[in-house]
Design brief:
- This protein is mostly helical.
- The chain contains four helices and no strands.
Length: about 100
């Protein structure tokens, strides 16, 4: 078994350090496990959260039916911001 050791310091005059120290100090599980989990979530962000959100959205939309009616008025072109938002949603939903 290979074990690596590392020393970690917190500057309690720095708000981010102090907040991290308080979280770690109050951890009910292993402090080592808390640090490892935090590092992994930092470098692999949103994997679990993204999947939960995708599943929830799919479940909410699965029984939704959309009916398109003919519109007498011409549709407006989307703004650049709206196009970027739609592109982001497509990427997020994996389409």
């Amino acid at each position: 078994m290979s074990i690596k050791r590392m020393s970690l310091r917190f500057n309690l005059n720095n708000e981010a350090d102090r907040s991290a120290w308080e979280h770690l100090k109050n951890a009910t599980d292993s402090k080592n496990k808390a640090v490892i989990t935090a590092i992994n979530q930092f470098y692999e962000p949103h994997t679990e959260t993204t999947e939960v959100i995708r599943k929830t959205i799919r479940e909410c939309l699965q029984n939704l039916s959309v009916i398109q009616t003919e519109s007498a008025q011409p549709t407006e072109a989307l703004s650049e911001e709206e196009n970027e938002l739609m592109d982001s949603l497509d990427m997020f939903l994996g389409q």
